[in-house]
């Protein structure tokens, strides 16, 4: 690696993929880029592009939209997928892609917040099976960085309305049910709405221009989209995560650099079990406070089918008693779940934010946790001041304490936590680019 390499030389662009319900590309990010400077100052001259994908769509649909948003062309969800899911095969047409020369020899860096991270890993899977043609390859993803990503599901989806015994069915009058109705109303009137409320529902023909009033009312009564398997809510269940594992998804590509940032702001409430609860001071952010309580006290035994981590991957609770969430220690097979299944950032439990698949089934390094309020240098620099050679094909897991689901992304407020994160990311990407130039 070059010791004095120019960080502006050979900068490979960064694609940002947003999370659930986020159509904020033009709302939350762009004005801040223009008027505050914010995170862009941390990335030097690197080009940063925000990919707009369906805010409530399934991982498969989002990954397809991500691919064509970058490459350009008409979104093709695949004939078999469209048949199974009951929507059109083709979606939106992108006359110009964000980076049309994207290829194995012109790869990109990726950053995903929340389900944006899982979308990137679904894209990697589709590239690995040649879904977009034989000229593609997983090497098109030079790096993947995720923040608060529910790789392995999250129990919040059940609190919001998904039935614990028969997902993807949704409980009537639940938050999820109301949300589904709102999505259908917005989709129905979508031709009249501003771009910021773009739901990317083109393939589902839900607008008043394509959908009759009777069909619209039927969707309001019971949504075949929200209560189907081809939507975000089901994709973040533990059942769907297990299906992805069984489908051989989520493996590391040997030439891609992986980093995940794990956030949590809850504390263990008892030595008797691994349950967690947020400090009462966090009641100033009510939705996250109450969702963190719900996630922190969830009963995994109530799930049908049972998630794979319950019977087969139990770790000794006592072995985790003296360590903080984020520091992994393998333990015996016959005890209770560790507290990492309840520690959370208000939306996703810690264990799910690490990486896809069990630790034993992937390559990963879990670094020590660090307070989000710590001054610069950033966590990575503090732990690797010598700028060691980066290793691809391995998940580097970093934990940020006292950090909730929205502390780092997507809204830039200039906190020390955010400055640390972007500084760390800028340094990470520069190091990778330097290594690429040296090859
Ligand atoms: Zn679909
Ligand atoms: Zn791991």
**Fraction of residues in helices?**
25-40%
The CATH superfamily title of the largest domain: Alpha/Beta hydrolase fold, catalytic domain
- Hetero groups bound? zinc ion
Number of domains: 2
CATH class of the largest domain: Alpha Beta
The secondary-structure class comes to alpha/beta
Number of strand elements: 12
Query: What's the CATH topology label of the largest domain?
Result: Rossmann fold
InterPro entries: AB_hydrolase_fold, Lip-like_C
GO molecular function: hydrolase activity
Domain Lipase-like C-terminal: 12-272
Subcellular location: Secreted
Can you walk through the features of this model?
This protein is an alpha/beta fold. The chain folds into 2 domains: 14-153 and 233-438, Alpha/Beta hydrolase fold, catalytic domain (Rossmann fold); 170-226, no CATH class. Helix content is 31%, strand content 12%. The chain is built from 15 helices and 12 strands. The longest helix is centred in the last third of the chain and has 23 residues, at 416-438. Residues 1-8, 313-334 and 373-378 have low confidence and may be disordered. Bound molecules: zinc ion (2 copies). One zinc ion (ZN) binds at residues 328, 354-355, 359, 364, 366, 397. Keywords: Hydrolase, Lipid metabolism, Secreted, Signal. Residues 12-272 form the Lipase-like C-terminal domain. It is found in: Secreted.
